[in-house]
Write a structure and sequence with these properties.
heterodimer, A: alpha/beta, 5-stranded parallel beta sheet, about 45% helix, about 15% strand, globular, B: alpha+beta, Immunoglobulin-like, 4 domains, 4-stranded antiparallel beta sheet
Chain lengths: ~300, ~300
């Protein structure tokens, strides 16, 4: 286990130098990176979501692309297309913005289902097919999709099956007064500073291998299963349906990554509990009475708290 | 529906087939028309003369973790079969257990009553926002939003619980509680007086056996640490580490079902050495087999340091 400061924590520290507050977002991005998973960020505009994603790519010396989802977007605008070159008298492939290490899908719910599924298929398969050829996506490849909860008019809600493809969902909240003052002092005159690379993509692949090898004790595995099963068996009046077994895998993987961030090669119950909300919140069907802001999270917190830790 | 029932039971046996077909067609047309009217009604506001819209609670003493009911009552002058566009508040601070409603023709109109069963999981004041009802006022033909009163519930853990709909009810509830407390104290005093009088009359009983000294409720922390150390030395395995972890957790008033973060938040776990010990035992409990020996040795060293 790497504990001399060259682990993934250096990326966290680099991001913290640029982004004021938003520890949850930074940790969510790092967890997604370490687990090869994709991240859904939900929050109002102006909360440094784009800056966080761009900074992550800069810190890793990776390629960053941003796609603004709009109702008239086409799948080929994301994955790429083939165009006819008259001089060569042949078709050439033009790769879309999805060919990047860190892809920011801004306001993913503004595009129709066909475009959403094109992106989500690429996220799942980690390759895209343009014409007769299949192209692998770069490694690491992480999609960070944003949704704005305040402005739902003219949006296409993501279906449950597609929400399930995101490893975790981070609710991005407003900064505190102190943090907002720091933002004012840091960014009032100058633009956000560009982060110098602190790690390489090879290091990211190495960290992933380390995260994969983090030990999870049998008692902890049973605890993770109980955290998911309670969402299905609690018969809570606010829940229409509970989380799928994919959530169990997600919590286990996130707990491993969390342990690695804490410079441990074994996971403890706190790791599982602290990531449970990230993995479960978007995989549970809450009914309309609690779907509004805050209520669903409170219900889920109560359920998680009911499960005895090992 | 009653007309269909009567026709089916008596008259249809004697009518001919064309008559039966005609009759069936009329019934189908009537059903389709009813469906259209219902759909159209659902898409627009109802035309109503609303005379009452209230939000109340069925008890003035809701207890923590004990279900109680919120009752929404609306009365309209019209005869209606359903009440559309009634918006209930989001009960974020209460857990919803059930919800049912009835519509009863009453007093030349209709009374709508919705009973929401809820339970509170934390004590303190909980304010429930008003219920709103959108309708066209039958008196002037204008679309309006009617709003009920809001409701503030003061949930108390064990004793005083007050539900105040307005200031007067709050004062009444306070004085009622005060009277109850006074009556309770008087009752307890009377019981003590009677018991004391009876004891004075009886001769004191002679002791028959000598009881063993009682086990102190508050344990000596050093003794607990020594016990954990002995456990870990006797059994330097994961199971032994979990047993030692359990002993140290009990020492700070925590249970095995809490996570380390919960345990470290306890006031008795504020000591830095104790926090290091709790972390060392957590490592010994959950680390991989290759690291187990080192983790147990680290926990033993920390225990030795603290018991010195």
């Amino acid at each position: 286990m790497n504990t001399n400061g060259s682990g993934p924590a250096i990326v966290t520290r680099a991001l913290e130098r640029t982004i004021v507050g938003q520890e949850g977002v930074i940790e969510g991005l790092l967890l997604g990176l370490l687990c090869s998973g994709h991240v859904l960020l939900e929050g109002p505009p102006g909360l440094a979501k784009t800056l966080a994603c761009r900074s992550l790519a800069d810190a890793l010396h990776g390629e960053f692309k941003r796609i603004q989802f709009t109702p008239d977007l086409l799948p080929s605008d994301i994955v790429g297309t083939r165009i006819f070159d008259q001089r060569e008298s042949a078709f050439t492939t033009v790769r879309g913005p999805i060919f990047a290490n860190v892809v920011l899908a801004d306001e993913i719910n503004r595009a129709p289902a066909k475009v959403q599924s094109a992106l989500l298929e690429a996220m799942q398969e980690r390759q895209v097919t343009i014409g007769p050829q299949t192209h692998p996506l770069p490694d690491p490849f992480i999609v960070m999709a944003t949704m704005n909860p305040l402005d739902s008019e003219g949006t296409y809600a993501l279906p449950v099956a597609q929400m399930d493809r995101f490893l975790l969902k981070v609710d991005v909240g407003y900064p505190s007064r102190t943090e907002e003052l720091a933002i004012l002092e840091r960014f009032a005159i100058a633009d956000a500073p560009v982060i110098a690379p602190v790690a390489t993509l090879d290091q990211v692949r190495e960290w992933r291998a380390q995260a994969h090898n983090v030990h999870i004790d049998d008692a902890l595995k049973r605890y993770i299963v109980e955290l998911v099963v309670i969402t299905r068996e609690a018969q809570h009046p606010a829940i229409d349906y509970g989380a799928s077994p994919r959530a169990t895998l997600a919590i286990a993987n996130l707990a491993r990554a969390k342990a690695l961030l804490e410079q441990r090669d074994y996971a403890v119950p706190d790791d599982a509990r602290s990531v449970a909300m990230l993995a479960l919140r978007h995989r549970i069907g809450f009914n309309f009475r609690v779907s509004a802001d805050g209520g669903a999270s409170r219900v889920l917190e109560q359920l998680i708290a009911k499960v005895p830790a090992p | 529906m009653a007309f269909i029932g009567r026709a089916g039971s008596a008259d249809l046996r004697s009518v001919t087939h064309p008559v039966l077909r005609t009759f069936t067609s009329i019934v189908l047309v009537a059903l389709v028309a009813t469906l259209f009217i219902t759909t159209a009604r659902g898409q627009s506001l109802q035309r109503l003369t609303i005379t009452q819209l209230t939000l109340a609670s069925d008890t003035t003493t809701p207890h923590l973790e004990v279900p109680f009911h919120l009752i929404v009552t609306a009365h309209v002058r019209e005869r209606i079969s359903e009440l559309d566009n009634l918006d209930l508040p989001i009960l974020a601070e209460l857990e919803l257990l059930g919800d049912e409603h009835t519509l009863v023709p009453q007093g030349g109109g209709t009374t709508y009553r919705e009973t929401i069963t809820v339970v509170a999981h934390h004590s303190g004041a909980i304010t429930i926002a008003p219920v709103t009802l959108d309708a066209i006022d039958a008196r002037d033909g204008k679309a309006k939003r009617y709003s009920s009163n809001s409701l503030t519930v003061h949930v108390a853990g064990l004793s005083a619980v007050a539900v105040t709909v307005d200031a007067w009810q709050g004062i009444r509830a306070f004085f009622a509680g005060l009277v109850k407390v006074v009556l309770l104290l008087v009752g307890i005093g009377a019981v003590i007086f009677v018991i004391a009088a009876l004891i004075r009359r009886r001769p004191p009983p002679a002791p028959l056996v000598t009881l063993a000294p009682a086990i102190p409720v508050v344990r000596d922390p050093k003794a607990a640490l020594r016990e954990a150390l002995a456990t870990l030395r006797r059994e330097p395995t994961r199971a032994g580490a979990m047993r030692a972890r359990s002993i140290v957790r009990r020492m700070v008033g925590a249970s095995d079902a809490e996570t380390l973060a919960d345990v470290l938040r306890r006031p008795l776990a504020a000591d830095p050495s104790l926090r290091d010990l709790l972390r060392a035992l957590e490592r010994a409990g959950f680390t991989h087999d290759a690291d187990l020996g080192v983790a147990v040795a680290a926990a033993i060293a920390q225990l030795e340091h603290m018991t010195r």
